[in-house]
Write a structure and sequence with these properties.
This protein has 124 residues and is α+β, with helices and mostly antiparallel strands. The protein has one domain. The chain is 44% helix and 17% strand. It has five helices and four strands. The protein has a four-stranded mixed β-sheet with strand order 2-1-3-4. The longest helix is centred in the C-terminal third of the chain and has 22 residues. The two termini are 17 Å apart.
């Protein structure tokens, strides 16, 4: 976005129609496009393979990985749950976060809340 490219978006395969629509928009953009896609890795994340789709959805529903797009400097949030789930719902399902203390999780929750408020302001 700092480079003022025509299209920037985030996506998760757990929301396939959103991902497809964003790839189509990126392909049709006049100029470069960038799509940041969260790809769940059961091996690296120390999570059960059958949790892949659920973890992608939790990343979005907890606000850790918000789905948004920026078209020609105009922000749009694509999915914002009415009530966010706590970040612990996402973190506790993965062994890679087992070292986090309660204080660290609280800090992560606060950061997620701040970043979402920033995104909401940009999208309004």
């Amino acid at each position: 976005m700092a480079h003022k490219i025509p299209y920037v978006a985030t996506a998760v395969p757990s929301f396939p129609f959103d991902l497809i629509a964003k790839v189509q928009k990126g392909l049709s953009a006049e100029g470069p496009a960038y799509i940041h896609i969260l790809s769940v890795c059961p091996t690296g994340w120390h999570s059960a393979p059958e949790m892949t789709v659920k973890l992608g959805r939790l990343a979005v529903d907890t606000g850790i990985f918000p789905l948004y797009e920026v078209e020609n400097d105009h922000y749009r949030l694509n999915r914002l749950p009415a009530k966010l789930r706590p970040v612990t719902d996402y973190l506790k399902s993965q062994g890679r976060f087992r070292h986090l203390s309660d204080e660290m999780v609280t800090q992560i929750q606060e950061r997620v809340n701040q970043e979402l408020e920033r995104l909401k302001a940009l999208a309004s």
